[in-house]
């Protein structure tokens, strides 16, 4: 069983508290993605699991064994680095064999393992070349090969696709998923790209400033963000945030802002009633706003002026001034004729409203 | 992200100390460092000690207890020594100032220009850097005599400058390589001439490098021996030559000789302590 | 652009190119400093030098031996020291200052210091040596002890140079290959040979070639410590040329020797670069 458990893990660099009380259980053969902006502590956490950083507080265990004091080589894991970290002057074969040779594995076994790994990754033709003769994508495959050749308990990935160009990155994502089918292994994957996190992870961990913000499946994170940051960080284009005040009228709750009055659905009553008269933040994703008049009983319409249009071919993105702020609307028909500064009628989908406490930024549920 | 440290051992690249137990590693480390320090510092220390001993005590330096400044006084009263110090100082300073002017522009050219003239210059300098000093200082003996500048300031300055060009153009080139040329391009677009861009943009950015070069150049000239030996005679004694003569002729007067040596070493010590950062900059190839 | 280089070129021509040409010219003439005529004698001086047993069996071997040993020993110690200094510890500034010292002091002074220390009657080394019970040794009276002192001086002066440059090199190495090696269970020595050395190869190569070319033309240390003695046993190439020109007053012969040495070092320098480049490839 190769479960990775992080328990109250902390990391301090002198006065800087880089990782704060991280608790996480990665189940056997699960692929967990750690995502967050630069400096949020995701790489540091990964490196603590790897043994490349000392742990200031808490414990990390792999396969039931606490590994705090074990050097990296004894933790039975493999790591893929952002800069590939291949041994430049060794051939691809020797790069793959290095770890096995250091562990005194007989050459015959090494040959078999290397061939197997090379076959899985499609780099058998490259075995005699040196890293500087390979493209970025090929080098990354060799780095992956270095991982699987040893059959470790855990794979660690530190932003492995960040150095590749956009098209290659998309291809490699697919290849990584295929690799997971063939070699299912407990994995922790660090990235700042939320698309990678969503597409690759069984579960996603969102981090910020050293704290874990939320842990959940990609869909949970997307649809039920626990705070303002998660709502704004995950998903592209990002969630729209509108400063509203909760008002009551005829026993119904409304979210009000400048030229903006939207009915809060009944099922949110209990949560939001305590906030009557107080300001809150309303969050709504661009794809949940549509052009046109909503059904009258929903009371979910408002007006706005068009600021900017972005033609993507598959959809139209429109930036609109409404409710005293800038809002992005997506998934508009790309053929829709819209002119700048035109005033339009919009409606939002009330089942996808998110509310956040103005001070704590927590979701109001 | 802040710099990471590995879990085991504090070095950035794993050193062989990490293989030992922590206590043993530290002990070995401090022992090695101490041994190295001792090896490098001891001769200097010993020389200074010897220079502070009166004549008869010099033979039992390690056992005697007398100290005196007398050696320094005696030595400074020798006219030749005093002259030598003055001459060396003047030549080192003058050579540095004059060389800088020429070397800086030479280095700039090596850094920024390509093309046949630049390549020829590159090759010439490289070639002359490799030629042994003895090969050209022998005929320089005659050249300086024909030009009537043998055994004079000029007769030393000009050859030194010639050597400086070959040696220090490289260092200046290195510094200019490290300065982003886009600033100069911006200046050219803003209406500067090439010379103007050099003077107003590249040069100010290169000042730390020039300072490093000046220090190295001065020290090198002060310490130089072979040119001084061959190109001077009685008129222009240089301190390094005077030192060497002490060793061979006044072999038994080690106390006087060591006093002279310590004084000759003076600039080096001062520069090492206060100008370290510049020196290290200049030593990078 | 020409303006930049003009004055430098002028100085260079007058004080390097012209003298070298004169030197080469002199090497073909019977040019004694006491004899005003300079008759052309063709290759007479070259033949003399190249058939001079002292030159071929003592001077050249000495010079090459000094060059190889000094560079090799300084490199090894310099690399070790660079590793030692590659961590932050208390007093690093002081250590760095002391390590820089040998480079800043004039070689003449260093040679003087060390010659004093090895003085066979009163030098501190002699005192310690005899104190430990060994027979008194006349260091400068025999060839190989003298040579060893000269070698020691050269290593003392130049190890810091290697140290500083290699330390800068070490500090600029990327971190990730070391981390990958840590995960790959590489032992300390393997990390050094398979990761550090290959990455340092370009820097080391340049250092070796530059330092070798310089070591070949060593003059100051040899002159001050032994003046080429005893009985010319520690003479190196530049001392040989100097003696011929300024002690034997045979300028023509001195020039010929200087030219021979110059050609040798240029050829050797080029060869060294090629060979070393090949030699330093490590793939396993």
Please explain how this structure is put together.
The complex is a heterotrimer of chains A (about 375), B (about 280) and C (about 280). The radius of gyration of chain A is 25 Å and the shape is elongated. Chain A has 2 domains: about 5-225, 3-Layer(aba) Sandwich (Rossmann fold); about 240-355, OB fold (Dihydrolipoamide Acetyltransferase, E2P) (Beta Barrel), CATH 2.40.50. Chain A has about 375 residues and is α+β, with helices and mostly antiparallel strands. In chain A, the strands form 4 sheets. A 6-stranded mixed β-sheet of chain A has the order 6-7-8-3-9-10, sandwiched between helices. In chain A, strands 13-12-11-14-20 form a 5-stranded antiparallel β-sheet. A 5-stranded antiparallel β-sheet of chain A has the order 15-19-16-17-18, with no helix packed on it. Chain A contains 9 helices and 20 strands. The mean pLDDT of chain A is about 90. The two termini of chain A are about 35 Å apart. Chain B is mostly helical and about 280 residues long. Chain B has 2 domains: about 15-70, no CATH class; about 75-285, Orthogonal Bundle (MetI-like fold). Residues about 1-20 of chain B have low confidence and may be disordered. By secondary structure, chain C is mainly alpha-helical. Chain C has one domain (about 55-280): Orthogonal Bundle (MetI-like fold), CATH 1.10.3720. Helix content of chain C is about 75%, strand content about 0%. Chain C has 12 helices and 2 strands, in the order αββααααααααααα. Chain C has helices at about 1-25, 45-50, 55-85, 90-105, 105-115, 125-130, 145-170, 175-185, 190-215, 220-225, 235-245, 250-280; strands at about 30, 40. Chain C has a two-stranded antiparallel ribbon. In chain C, helix 3 (about 55-85) runs parallel beside helix 7 (about 145-170), helix 7 packs across helix 9 (about 190-215) and helix 9 runs antiparallel to helix 12. The mean pLDDT of chain C is about 85. The interface between A and B is small, with 13 and 7 residues.
């Amino acid at each position: 069983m190769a479960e990775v458990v992080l328990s109250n893990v902390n990391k301090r660099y002198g006065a800087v508290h880089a990782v704060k009380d991280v608790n996480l259980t990665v189940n056997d053969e699960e692929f967990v993605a750690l995502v967050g902006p630069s400096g949020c502590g995701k790489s540091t956490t990964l490196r603590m699991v790897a043994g490349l950083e000392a742990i200031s507080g808490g414990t990390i265990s792999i396969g039931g064994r606490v590994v705090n004091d074990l050097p990296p080589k004894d933790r039975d894991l493999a790591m893929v680095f952002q800069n590939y970290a291949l041994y430049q002057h060794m051939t691809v074969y020797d790069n793959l064999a290095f770890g096995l040779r250091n562990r005194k594995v007989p050459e015959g076994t090494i040959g078999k393992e290397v061939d197997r790994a090379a076959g899985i990754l499609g780099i058998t033709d490259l075995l005699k070349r040196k890293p500087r003769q390979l493209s970025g994508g090929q080098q990354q495959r060799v780095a992956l090969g270095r991982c699987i050749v040893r059959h470790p308990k855990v794979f660690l990935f530190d932003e492995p696709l960040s150095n590749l160009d956009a098209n290659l990155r998309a291809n490699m994502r697919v290849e990584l998923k295929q690799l997971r089918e063939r070699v299912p292994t407990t994995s922790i994957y660090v990235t700042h790209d939320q698309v990678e996190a969503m597409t690759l992870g069984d579960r996603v961990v969102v981090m910020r400033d050293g704290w874990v913000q939320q842990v959940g499946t990609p869909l949970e994170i997307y649809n039920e963000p626990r705070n303002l940051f998660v709502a704004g960080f995950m998903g592209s284009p990002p969630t729209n945030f509108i400063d509203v005040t909760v008002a009551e009228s005829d026993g119904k709750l409304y979210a009000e802002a400048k030229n903006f009055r939207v009915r809060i659905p009944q099922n949110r009553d209990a949560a939001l009633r305590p906030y009557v008269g107080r300001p809150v933040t309303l969050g709504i994703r661009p794809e949940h706003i549509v052009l046109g008049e909503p059904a009258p009983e929903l009371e979910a319409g408002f007006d706005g002026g068009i600021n900017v249009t972005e033609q993507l071919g598959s959809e139209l993105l429109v930036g609109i001034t409404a409710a005293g702020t800038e809002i992005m609307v997506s998934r508009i028909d790309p053929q829709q004729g819209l002119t700048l500064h035109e005033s339009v009628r919009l409606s939002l989908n009330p089942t996808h409203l998110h509310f956040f406490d103005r001070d704590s930024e927590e979701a109001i549920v | 992200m802040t710099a990471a440290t590995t879990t085991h051992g504090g070095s950035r690249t794993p050193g062989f100390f990490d293989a030992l137990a922590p206590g043993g590693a530290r002990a070995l480390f401090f022992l090695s460092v101490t041994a190295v320090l001792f090896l490098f510092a001891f001769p200097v220390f010993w020389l200074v000690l010897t220079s502070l001993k009166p004549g008869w005590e010099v033979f039992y330096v390690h056992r005697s207890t007398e100290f005196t400044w007398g050696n320094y006084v005696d030595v400074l009263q020798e006219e030749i020594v005093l002259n030598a110090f003055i001459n060396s100082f003047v030549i080192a300073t003058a050579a540095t100032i004059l060389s800088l002017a020429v070397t800086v522009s030479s280095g700039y050219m090596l850094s920024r220009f390509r093309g046949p003239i630049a390549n020829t210059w590159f090759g010439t300098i490289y070639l002359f850097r490799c030629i042994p000093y003895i090969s050209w200082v022998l005929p320089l003996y005659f050249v300086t005599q024909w030009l009537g500048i043998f055994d004079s300031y000029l007769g030393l300055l000009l050859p030194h400058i010639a050597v400086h060009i070959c040696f220090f153009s490289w260092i200046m080139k290195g510094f200019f390589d490290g300065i982003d040329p886009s600033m100069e391009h911006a200046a050219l677009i803003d209406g500067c001439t090439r010379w103007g861009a050099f003077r107003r943009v590249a040069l100010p950015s290169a000042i730390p490098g020039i300072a490093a070069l000046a220090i190295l150049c001065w020290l090198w000239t002060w310490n130089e021996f072979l040119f001084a030996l061959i190109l001077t005679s009685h008129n222009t004694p240089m301190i390094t030559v005077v030192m060497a003569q002490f060793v061979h002729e006044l072999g038994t007067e080690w106390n006087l000789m060591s006093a002279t040596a310590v004084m000759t070493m003076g600039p080096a010590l001062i520069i090492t302590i206060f100008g370290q950062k510049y020196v290290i900059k200049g030593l990078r190839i | 652009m020409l303006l930049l280089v003009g004055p430098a070129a002028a100085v260079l021509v007058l004080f390097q190119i012209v003298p070298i040409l004169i030197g080469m010219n002199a090497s073909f003439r019977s040019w004694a400093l006491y004899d005003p005529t300079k008759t052309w004698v063709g290759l007479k001086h070259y033949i003399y030098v190249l058939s001079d047993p002292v030159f071929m069996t003592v001077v050249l071997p000495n010079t090459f031996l000094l060059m190889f040993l000094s560079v090799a020993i300084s490199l090894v110690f310099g690399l070790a020291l660079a590793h030692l200094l590659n961590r932050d510890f208390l007093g690093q500034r002081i250590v760095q200052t002391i390590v820089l010292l040998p480079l800043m002091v004039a070689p003449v002074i260093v040679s003087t210091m060390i010659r004093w220390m090895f003085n066979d009657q009163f030098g501190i080394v002699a005192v310690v040596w005899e104190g430990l019970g060994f027979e008194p040794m006349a260091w400068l009276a025999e060839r190989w002890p003298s040579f060893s002192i000269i070698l020691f001086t050269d290593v003392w002066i130049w190890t810091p140079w290697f140290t500083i440059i290699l330390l800068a090199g070490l500090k600029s190495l990327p971190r990730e290959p070391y981390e990958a090696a840590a995960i790959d269970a590489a032992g300390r020595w393997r990390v050094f040979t398979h990761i550090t050395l290959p990455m340092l190869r370009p820097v080391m190569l340049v250092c070796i070639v530059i330092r070798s070319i310089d070591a070949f033309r060593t003059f100051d240390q040899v002159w001050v410590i032994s003046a080429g003695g005893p009985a010319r046993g520690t003479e190196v190439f530049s001392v040989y040329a100097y003696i011929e020109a300024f002690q034997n007053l045979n300028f023509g012969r001195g020039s010929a020797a200087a030219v021979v040495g110059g050609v040798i070092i240029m050829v050797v320098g080029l060869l060294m670069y090629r060979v070393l480049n090949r030699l330093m490839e490590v793939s396993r």
